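tokens incoming
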């Protein structure tokens, strides 16, 4: 057991670190040991500052997701596989994310461990596994394993971020979660944007390393996050903690949960399948340049941040079920028709609405 002086010393160093990083991000960092002030509306005063910090961390932490898709031609040439087969690299990330999310839920990590520590670990591991793609002479199977591991790592970034922000908001929780989801969208678009701005000057390896570096910055930022007043008490990663895992049978019998899972899984199957080939679609279907294809993909994906915020706002006012139903319907219809569009402008518009 640590002595009191040692614990106080650790707390002092951590508070100094939080404020140092906060100054770098130009935001106010609140000490986690104090209770947040309450505003006139009864909600904690620091909730919007906490949301801003979380958005920055999630954008950075998810920057590795589509780094392979952004330089698909270059990576497939390196691995000596057909470009049409390169989509399996993104599929590996998605499968890894699914594996990590299920494992995290089964172990009850979100309820047993600090959100900031989990996110920092996830961002760091995603960065390391992504950087492994740049090693010379790797095979396709090694690349797939690295992408799968990166997806597993990101499973303790985005979902944990949603749980963390729920601890800061009761009123306006839909907007807060919409902002977190929008941050995922911006992080997904980041590799395309970086490649569009630097493709003539850097190699694909530098882009991948840059995305890994951005993820490491997200890990540093995550360590500054303070739990909100509505957060459930964590048990400091105690593996023997009781009631940390819900019974599997209870989850399997939860009809509402299955409805959410089916809707969410179907939507992600559709949207990420489309996003992973959005750049090649623009380049090959409309004969635009590689740079314009990357920029168009970044814009079409990144504009989804606005949609996420709008969906969060409408879910607080008109209900989450109606908002999800309309969003899923529009998204599915665009997925059906966009491949048949012959105009680049129309396709770009539809891709933006889709995002």
């Amino acid at each position: 057991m640590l002595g009191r002086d040692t614990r106080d010393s650790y707390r002092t160093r951590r508070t100094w670190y939080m404020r140092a990083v906060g100054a770098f991000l130009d935001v106010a960092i609140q000490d986690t040991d104090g209770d947040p002030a309450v505003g006139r509306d009864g909600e904690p005063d620091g909730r919007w500052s906490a949301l801003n910090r979380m958005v920055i961390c999630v954008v950075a932490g998810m920057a590795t997701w589509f780094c392979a898709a952004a330089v698909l031609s270059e990576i497939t040439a390196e691995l000596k596989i057909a470009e049409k087969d390169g989509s399996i690299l993104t599929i590996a990330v998605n499968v890894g994310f699914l594996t990590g999310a299920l494992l995290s839920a089964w172990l009850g990590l979100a309820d047993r461990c600090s959100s900031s520590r989990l996110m920092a670990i996830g961002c760091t591991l995603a960065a390391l596994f992504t950087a492994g793609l740049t090693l010379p002479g790797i095979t396709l199977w090694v690349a797939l394993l690295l992408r799968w591991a990166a997806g597993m790592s990101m499973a303790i970034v985005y979902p944990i971020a949603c749980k963390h922000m729920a601890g800061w908001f009761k009123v306006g929780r839909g907007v807060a979660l919409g902002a977190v989801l929008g941050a995922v969208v911006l992080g997904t678009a980041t590799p395309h944007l970086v490649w569009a701005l630097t493709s003539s000057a850097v190699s694909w390896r530098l882009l991948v390393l840059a995305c890994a570096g951005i993820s490491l910055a997200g890990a540093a930022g995550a360590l500054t996050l303070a739990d909100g007043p509505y957060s459930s008490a964590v048990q400091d990663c105690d593996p023997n903690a009781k009631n940390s895992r819900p019974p599997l049978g209870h989850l399997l019998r939860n009809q509402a949960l299955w409805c959410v899972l089916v809707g969410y899984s179907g939507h992600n199957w559709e949207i990420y399948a489309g996003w992973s080939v959005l750049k090649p679609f623009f380049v090959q279907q409309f004969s635009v340049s590689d740079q314009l294809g990357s920029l168009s993909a970044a814009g079409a994906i990144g504009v989804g941040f606005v949609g996420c915020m709008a969906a969060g706002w409408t879910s607080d006012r008109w209900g989450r079920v109606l908002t999800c139903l309309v969003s899923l319907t529009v998204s599915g219809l665009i997925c059906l028709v966009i491949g048949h569009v012959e105009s680049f402008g129309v396709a770009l518009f539809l891709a933006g609405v889709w995002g």
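note: Residues 79 and 137 are 8 Å apart (CA to CA).
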